[in-house]
Write a structure and sequence with these properties.
heterodimer, A: 131 residues, Nonspecific Lipid-transfer Protein, Chain A, six-stranded mixed sheet, globular, B: 688 residues, four-stranded antiparallel sheet
């Protein structure tokens, strides 16, 4: 999972997302800055579907930041809410759309499902034996 | 003796200082001015001619406003002062202090008034030992301004202190050399801005429309309206009315409007939890539905907004999970703590479902039930997909963040809270008993929502079937027949953790207890090992780990007791519920409002007076809310279709009470009760 934000946005975001609430709808623009140039990614969310285009049109929420900040989001190394509070990205507009990005970008690559944790191997932590 | 602290608060901001109004950082208590989990003032000390001041009086006008009247010198030597000082402070999104110096002498007088100012920008999580930070200090004499600024990468926090009166500014404070006419006065307004810088040096909050709307509202009017919307309590005994009014005032003070939203929800409480805690907010809402139902939609919407979306070990996050803690401080957002959005709790997710259903029963707000269908469905799915960690059908927890995640992910979240009678700790994943009650209740309530509002009867049938199976399994595996109570928890292999603890009171509230066992459970809850005389202890006496000052191993929590009392009444154990209600109200009668988060578990006849614990929060939302829930329980308030049912069972000594204008789907309704109604109905059982 070393995809860049651009790779990830062009390949993995468009389409149906069953984990988006059906009540979430709106437009979200990501302004990815790289030196003097800025790439605009325009996400339209509606009925649990996401459409991705390249456009600098006004949007309900605009999230802007350096390419490295978006690459970290696309690789699951950064959480959108923490990135905002670190000021790695800025957000302007309807913040209620912000957490949709938590569903659209991946989590950390090495994360465990709670059922797949190493087994405890014993019943009591203090070395006591089971009765 | 504990030192007295004086606070003003607003949203997630608060200023905590001493009785003189001064603030000097203290490693034990978060003294200073805080906002967004960051300290913006760590030193704020006023002197006149080099002398500290001594308070003659103080007026706590509202939760966001305090006025001190002071004279130079200390209380130990009498001063016939020719000068006095009034400090009038208020807090909204910024902090303001108006300082007035009065000259009482017959001639003009000159004074040197100084405010010492410093800031360490500590995170609320590191008050004990704040890390050293490089703070850039800029005195701007001409502008009458002192700027203190801290930056780490692009993260920037800044305190800007400005004065309306002419002032000399240096790196350590502000000095006023003033001359005051006989019987005259001098005034300055000190304004402290707490800036969270975004790009292009703009305050992050300035770009957020919802937040601006709130700031423009007048806080006094808002407080009056808040009070007017809540029911009126008419009581024979004034201490009941005082406790009631105190609770409403505490809850008003603890409201906070999150950045992305436009309605306030309850924060945990002062001083350690001035932010959104999922569990505290959910419980507070459940406690206050008949009184201040407006807190609930904001809480549910905000928790749904931040619902878990990915598997993430650092934050103990899974899709559908409801968060337990949400902080804005530096430690959390840089990943040094897991607190920015922390999900280490197994109870918040079922409680979310329970609150939505209970809210609809009171309010009839079907729109919200429809709006929150998807997050509620995800929450219900979480219980089985991620909460049932060993596949045995029980809701369990085990932290994946082994560095700073919480060991115990239930309300008793201290590291050694879950132990058997001899002090042995079960391995992980752990299944505490009250979690099973919540899961059972959430499934039944989810079924009702699915059938009545989501048009999904098939799903409703499935949930009801699962709930029935859980109930049967639970009553088989957790019941300790020889001890006649429910085990505190099960180990991963299903062995019971045999401690006698308050958790099983929550089982009555959830309705998972078989009716023929309720009386035995009630006997334990108000028996001498669990009941201290003030309330039910978290953990019973006569077991090795019991400790009356242990937060979860003996102390008494009003929030815990409110849920237990409601559970007792659900099963018809009215006498036991009334004993608890009387004990908890005695705490607030003796200590005054706000009622603390917890008191020590000593036997009441040993100490006669409630023993406070130094780290207990006060005010605390779920503690102040507990008094309201106990009152509602004593009156037997419950919605039934479009009507409000009233079935009073008041403790002896409550006299006659009237609760007027209870809001709900019926419009407004009144409830009456008197303490004699309880006679002879203690053991009547109703099916759960």
């Amino acid at each position: 999972m070393t995809a860049t934000a651009a790779d990830y946005l062009s390949r993995c975001v468009a389409g149906r997302h069953g984990d988006l609430p059906e009540t979430t709808s709106g437009t979200l623009r990501l302004d990815v800055r790289d030196g003097a140039s800025t790439e605009h990614w325009y996400l339209t969310i509606r009925d649990q579907r996401v459409e991705v285009t390249r456009s600098g049109e006004p949007a309900d929420l605009v999230v802007a930041g350096a390419r490295a900040a978006f690459d970290a989001l696309a690789a699951g190394r950064s959480h959108i809410a923490s990135a905002l509070l670190r000021n790695d990205v800025t957000a302007q507009g309807n913040l209620r759309l912000l957490m949709s990005l938590r569903r659209l970008f991946p989590g950390p690559p090495a994360a465990h499902h709670p059922r797949h944790l190493p087994p405890a191997g014993r019943d009591w932590l203090d070395g006591g034996t089971s009765r | 003796m504990m030192q007295e602290y004086v606070y003003v608060m607003a949203g997630n901001a608060f200023a905590l200082g001493d009785a003189q109004g001064d603030m000097t950082a203290d490693p034990r208590v978060p003294v200073g001015l805080f906002s967004f989990d960051t300290r913006f003032l760590s030193r704020w000390v006023l002197t006149v001619d080099g002398q500290r001041l001594h308070a003659l009086s103080r007026d706590d006008l509202t939760y966001f406003e305090t006025r001190f009247v002071l004279v130079p010198g200390t209380a130990s030597h009498y001063v016939d002062a020719d000068v006095s000082v009034i400090r009038h402070r208020s807090l909204d999104d910024s902090y303001n202090e108006r300082i007035t110096v009065l000259n009482h002498s017959a001639g003009p007088a000159e004074f040197t008034v100084r405010m010492e100012i410093a800031c360490d920008f500590a995170d609320t999580a590191e008050i004990r030992q704040p890390r050293p930070r490089r703070v850039e200090i800029t005195p701007l004499g001409q502008e009458g301004e002192l700027r203190l600024r801290y930056q780490r990468d692009r993260f920037c926090r800044e305190t800007v202190v400005s004065s309306t009166a002419p002032v000399e500014v240096d790196e350590r404070g502000m000095t006023f050399r003033i001359r005051v006419e006989p019987n005259g006065s001098w005034t300055t307004n000190l304004h402290v801005g707490m800036l969270i810088r975004g790009a292009a040096a703009r305050d992050l909050r300035a770009s957020l429309e919802a937040h601006r709307r709130r700031v423009s509202r007048d806080m006094r009017e808002d407080l009056e309206r808040w009070r007017a919307r809540a029911p009126e309590l008419v009581a024979e005994h004034d201490d009941l009315r005082r406790a009631y009014e105190g609770s409403l005032a505490d809850l008003a003070a603890l409201r906070y409007t999150p950045l992305a939203h436009d309605a306030p929800l309850p924060v945990g409480g002062l001083p350690w939890a001035m932010t959104l805690y999922g569990r505290d907010a959910l419980i507070t809402c459940l406690e206050t539905l008949p009184f201040t139902p407006e807190l609930t939609p904001a809480t549910l919407r905000t928790l749904a907004f931040a619902q878990g979306g990915q598997l993430d070990d650092q934050h103990d996050e899974e899709p559908g999970k409801i968060l337990v803690e949400n902080r804005y401080g530096e430690n959390g957002v840089f990943g040094e703590a897991a607190t920015s959005l922390y999900f280490g709790a197994a109870d918040t997710t079922p409680l979310f479902v329970i609150l939505l259903d209970e809210y609809e029963r009171w309010s009839g707000d079907v729109e919200l039930v429809r709006e929150l269908r998807h997050p509620t469905r995800m929450a219900l799915d979480w219980i089985d997909e991620y909460g049932d960690m060993t596949g045995d059908g029980y809701l369990r927890y085990q932290r994946r963040n082994t560095r700073n995640g919480l060991v115990n992910q239930c309300w008793k979240n201290s590291p050694e809270a879950i132990v058997d009678r001899t002090g042995r700790q079960p391995a992980f994943p752990r299944a505490t008993c009250e979690l099973q009650g919540y899961a059972y209740d959430a499934k039944l309530r989810g079924a009702r929502l699915a059938r009545e509002f989501w048009g999904d009867p098939g799903y409703a049938d499935r949930l009801e079937r699962e709930a029935a199976e859980l109930r049967q399994r639970f009553n088989r595996d957790f019941w300790l027949p020889h001890r006649e109570y429910y085990a505190l928890a099960l180990t991963p292999d299903g062995e019971p953790v045999d401690a006698l603890a308050s958790n099983m009171g929550h089982l009555l509230w959830s309705g998972i207890v078989e009716p023929d066992r309720a009386e035995a459970v009630a006997r334990h809850l108000v028996g001498p090992r669990l009941f201290s005389g003030w309330g039910v202890r978290t953990y019973a006496e006569e077991q090795r780990p019991y400790n009356p000052v242990g937060a979860h191993l003996g102390a008494v929590w009003p929030s815990d007791n409110a849920i237990i009392a409601a559970g007792l009444r659900r099963y018809g154990c009215d006498e036991a519920a009334a004993r608890i209600t009387a004990g908890i109200f005695d705490i607030v009668r003796l200590l005054g409002s706000p009622i603390p988060e917890t008191i020590a578990g000593y036997r009441r006849d040993l100490t006669r007076y409630p023993v406070q614990l130094p780290h207990a929060g006060r005010p605390q939302a779920w503690s102040s809310g507990a008094l309201l829930m106990l009152l509602g329980t004593a009156l037997g308030l419950s919605p039934c279709g479009d009507n409000l049912l009233v079935d009073p069972a008041l403790p002896q000594g409550f006299g006659r009470i009237e609760l007027l204008d209870i809001p709900g789907r019926w419009g407004h309704a009144d409830a009456y009760g008197r303490d004699r109604a309880l006679a002879g109905r203690g053991s009547r059982l109703r099916p759960g």
